[in-house]
């Protein structure tokens, strides 16, 4: 591709003519003091024609009261966005209610499409398209970023990623739509009401990944209600009968399998409606932080950094693995200190029995819960640092290694003490008390650290900002410049990882020892109801708007939850087998007791696997729709081949 | 599509001109006394141009000494076969050693392609293409098969399938290539030698499904050798030490996981080389036996027979399921009779101790083994009948239901007595004896019934045929007519189902009770070595040549083997826990024993699942090759979209 000589002025004038249509979608913040030549080159590449290797987007500097601040607004023409929608493979609904991959040539067949309907693509979709186009803006012959010789480029390297890693580009973020956000807030958490969340609206505004998290959170809360309802009488009437506990545990185990299987179906329904179930996977580019010496990628045949897989394996097995083991050991060490504390509190209580001393009994658990939370958070940073140091080429591989590290540690850190109490100390009373304290404390801490604290900080910051600008306007009245300046200071939402992790640990508290503490489900339900509100608040008011990320499922978390439910079968069977009530049923032979429990456990596990196998992952109508689409594409291919064959055979 | 009026003569004369190139590939046998008008219509449809809805193949009646016998030979021009290869989506090797889907337009880029090289497609591939084209020969406006008003047709119905179900078409089978077969036989089992089978040659001649079976059989045999080698000293030195048995069982369990995981990788290597790993799944048509009232298929939108899913469910749950349960009950009943017999033999032996009486001890087991085999075979027919009566629309669904029925029954039928002896009678001596007798008897019976008996029958038949034709020629000298006449009388190979089932049961004998009878692996290895030879003999000399079936893996059998290996963890742990040597290690507390065994069992299961998760299903180089292909296709799509976008944006 030969780059035609093109004057800067030309593209800017092109922009000027369409400025009336310019709708700012994405904000680019460059570092203060970025060289002029760099800015010129970068903006030129953004507005350049596709044929010349540009992104063909629109860009406009933001002029504020303080003057020019190296902040740019990016938009795109309607036509450009439609072509971008085809490039990212968006799936939209057609006039015949089927979901199809959008192509510009077949645009007339799509529902609500009209050449002048600029709402055919949602704002989140437009922003996703612009992000995709910006990230795919690639170096041609440039050897470096103009003005920054140390920021090397090679043909095919994503310019934006290089700018980000060399610190020239501070951030790229999508703008909020104040009107839309207000509407969404109102229907989401604006009034206290019983009902479902507006998932489709959330998806339109925040994208599929976040909507799916809220969908899962809501589903999970509803799914816990039967367990909570059944659990309440156990507490109220202080039931301790053997058969009732067994029934509760059995119900729990089967129920947890059912809800995880049913979630897959609901997830398929949601993502089919949103189009992401049908979306083709894009080829995965190296993640931004990946570095290495220039070499030939055997898959793409392109020159790009390569990093030996052996070196990475060495780093994983010789550094990361020992480090994780060390952390696990440390966590166990802290646990032993907790038990010393517990013992000390018990001794104290026995010596001077008073209201204060019986309250003191709870103190070690509360301290331990706080320490666990702190350790989890510190470990999280260490895990991120280590995984990033392992230098994974793909984001997916990075994520898998990070999730594995974090899950193993968090699982041990949170549940080791409970396992120890249950299966080494055999102290059911302490187990119940410990479980309750850990669960409730961690819930309170999480709610506080995750949403309320950032909200309060944000609020304070906003007030200060407003005082500075001396304006008394409400949010929706803000000028664009004020809005951008406010949003660029907001925190960045780091993805759904922590939110899922919290649910995962909660699921562990509820299911692992469910037969000992049936009330856990009640607390989980209560927590999740407020969690929906505080997470919604967090998304709408605390953080910058995140880019929409299309996704078809909750990924590795499905596996994590399923693994937890398998482990909980084992723990619950053991707990029931150890209870004195069950013991009393086998007065003669402990052997028979253990064998019976082992048999029931295997039976439950077998039922679980058979159920997971038998319940189809997608509802029948979604299966039919997918089959229909597949049939059509095969039919089209066949027709094409038939035509070709008929032509070739016409001697 | 308007059908052009075309005289019969034209197409036949077209055939005459190319007759010198005519290579018979597939034989069609019509019923004796088929009406002339039907034959004329059918052959015309076969030779008709693609554009007129025909198959555009070549067809020639076979004229034998006895005159015209309604047998036709089908072939195709080289060009027709190449276009057919594109239609079925064959994947071939390119000049740059990558595997790609063959298209006629890119034919020059494929390895060994030349316009005059008629060996570019193997004979098996040509025959598969012809089968595909014949099966896809569909009715246009015909309401019935001409001459047979009861054989209804509707637009889009496969003509060949209707002809088959109405008995007009007796059979379609591919011709053997005597020269090739002789070469294959020689390299396969012609001389006694140590080494691998010529899998690539087998695949070229018989297709991927059969080659993959032989590949699995060979792999499985090699994989059993370590177990056999370790098992021999246990027998020779009569080791009965606890630690040695535990070691053997542990090795067995981990080994069986490893071999099943490694098989997936080897399977990927094989099918990548053969091109089937990359082959796109074709849209599945209704199976031949499916019937129903005409309706609209919601997926294809075509008019075709539909059958209510509720009716099918009713048949499955109200008839098939009770029937299977009844059969299971009957099988258990027979088992109880066997135990009576066993008891009687033991009593007899105790009363009159002699050589004869100690031989008599084995008789009940042998009788029982024979009865098991007979019951398995009878049940097989019943299961086929029932599953066919359930009227599944798709062949895959039919196969899954059939396999499930057969597996459950065979598992119980073969192993129930062993489970009973092991875990109810606790008689390890009887278990070992029973296991040995069952394994060896069933192996002998299988080898006899599967290969030697049909071979002998075939040999006798051939001799008689030769006497009738008074010819003394060897196989390769036979005229085409003689060859066709001989082959059409041969039995039809019914697929790999029985062969895999046999291996599956053998795997059960070897692994379920491996710690009791380490010699089982030795017998399995010996059996499998002869099995390779007898199965090869069966394929080459006993049965008609089967049509090649492309496949990318061994399908549901992988799951079946994995399930068996999970079950064997449980049984082995129980057996070891019950052994007196282990018992002696825990003199004080049986409780500790059981808990230890349960703990080890869970640990082994966890290791199994982690291993299955960690070992990648495809070797790294195959993953890279697949990624490369995916990248290329995405890149091509992007280029296409870029071009379109550049055009659309050029105002």
TrEMBL record, chains A, B:
- Pfam families cross-referenced by the UniProt entry: Anoctamin
Is this entry keyworded NADP?
no
Keywords attached to this entry: Membrane, Transmembrane, Transmembrane helix
Q: For the Anoctamin transmembrane domain, which residue ranges apply?
A: 202-628
**Keyword Transmembrane helix in annotation:** yes
Question: Transmembrane ranges?
Answer: 219-239, 245-263, 316-339, 359-379, 402-423, 503-526, 593-615
Q: Which InterPro entries match?
A: Anoctamin (IPR007632), Anoctamin_TM (IPR049452)
**Protein family according to the UniProt entry:** Belongs to the anoctamin family.
Protein's name according to its UniProt entry: Anoctamin
The gene designation is ANO10
């Amino acid at each position: 591709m030969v780059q035609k000589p093109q004057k800067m002025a030309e593209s800017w004038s092109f922009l000027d003519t369409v400025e009336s249509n310019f709708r700012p979608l994405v904000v680019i913040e460059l570092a203060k003091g970025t060289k002029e030549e760099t800015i010129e080159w970068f903006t030129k590449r953004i507005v350049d024609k596709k044929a010349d290797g540009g992104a063909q987007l629109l860009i406009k500097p933001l002029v504020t009261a303080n003057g020019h601040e190296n902040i740019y607004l990016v938009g795109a023409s309607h036509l450009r966005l439609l072509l971008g929608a085809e490039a990212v493979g968006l799936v939209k609904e057609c006039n015949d209610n089927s979901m199809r991959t959008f192509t510009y040539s077949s645009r007339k067949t799509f529902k609500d499409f009209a050449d002048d309907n600029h709402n055919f693509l949602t704002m989140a979709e437009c922003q996703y398209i612009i992000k995709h186009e910006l990230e795919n803006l690639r170096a041609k012959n440039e050897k470096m970023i103009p003005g920054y010789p140390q920021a090397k480029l090679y043909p095919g390297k994503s310019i934006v990623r290089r700018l980000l890693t060399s610190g020239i580009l501070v951030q790229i973020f999508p703008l909020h739509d104040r009107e839309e956000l207000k509407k969404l807030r109102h229907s989401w958490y604006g009034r206290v009401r019983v009902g479902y969340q507006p998932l489709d609206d959330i998806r339109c505004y925040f994208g599929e990944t976040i909507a799916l998290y809220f969908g899962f959170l809501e589903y999970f809360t509803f799914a816990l209600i039967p367990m909570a309802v059944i659990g309440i009488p156990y507490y109220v009437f202080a039931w301790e009968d053997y058969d009732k506990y067994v029934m509760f545990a059995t119900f729990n185990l089967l129920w947890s399998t059912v809800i995880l299987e049913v979630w897959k179906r609901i997830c398929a329904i949601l993502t089919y409606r949103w189009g992401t179930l049908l979306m083709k996977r894009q080829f995965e580019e190296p993640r931004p932080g990946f570095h290495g010496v220039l070499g030939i990628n055997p898959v793409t045949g392109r020159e790009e950094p390569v990093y030996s897989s052996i070196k990475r394996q060495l780093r994983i097995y010789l550094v990361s693995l020992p480090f994780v083991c060390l952390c696990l050991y440390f966590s166990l060490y802290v646990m032993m200190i907790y038990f010393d504390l517990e013992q000390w509190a018990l001794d104290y209580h026995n010596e001077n029995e008073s209201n204060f001393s019986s309250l003191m009994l709870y103190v070690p658990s509360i301290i331990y819960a706080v320490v666990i939370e702190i350790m989890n958070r510190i470990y999280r940073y260490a895990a991120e640092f280590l995984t990033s140091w392992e230098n994974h080429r793909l984001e997916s591989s990075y994520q898998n290694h990070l999730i594995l590290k974090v899950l193993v540690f968090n699982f041990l850190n949170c549940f080791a003490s409970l396992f120890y109490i249950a299966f080494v100390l055999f102290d059911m009373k302490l187990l119940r008390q410990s479980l309750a304290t850990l669960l409730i404390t961690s819930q309170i801490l999480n709610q506080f650290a995750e949403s309320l604290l950032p909200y309060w900080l944000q609020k304070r910051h906003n007030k200060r900002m407003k005082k500075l600008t001396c304006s008394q306007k409400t949010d929706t009245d803000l000028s664009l410049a004020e809005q951008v300046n406010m949003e660029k200071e907001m925190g960045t939402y780091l993805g759904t990882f922590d939110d899922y992790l919290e649910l995962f640990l909660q699921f562990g508290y509820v299911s692992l020892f469910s037969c000992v503490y049936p009330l856990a489900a009640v607390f989980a339900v209560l927590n999740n109801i407020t969690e929906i509100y505080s997470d919604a608040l967090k998304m709408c008011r605390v953080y910058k708007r995140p880019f929409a990320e299309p996704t078809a499922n909750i990924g590795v978390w499905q596996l994590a939850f399923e693994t937890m439910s398998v482990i909980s079968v084992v723990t619950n069977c053991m707990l029931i087998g150890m209870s004195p009530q069950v013991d009393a049923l086998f007065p003669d032979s402990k052997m028979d007791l253990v064998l019976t429990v082992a048999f029931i456990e295997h039976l439950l596990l077998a039922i679980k696997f058979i159920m997971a196998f038998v319940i189809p992952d997608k509802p029948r109508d979604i299966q039919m729709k997918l089959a229909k689409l597949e049939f059509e594409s095969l039919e089209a291919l066949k027709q094409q081949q038939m035509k070709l064959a008929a032509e070739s055979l016409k001697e």
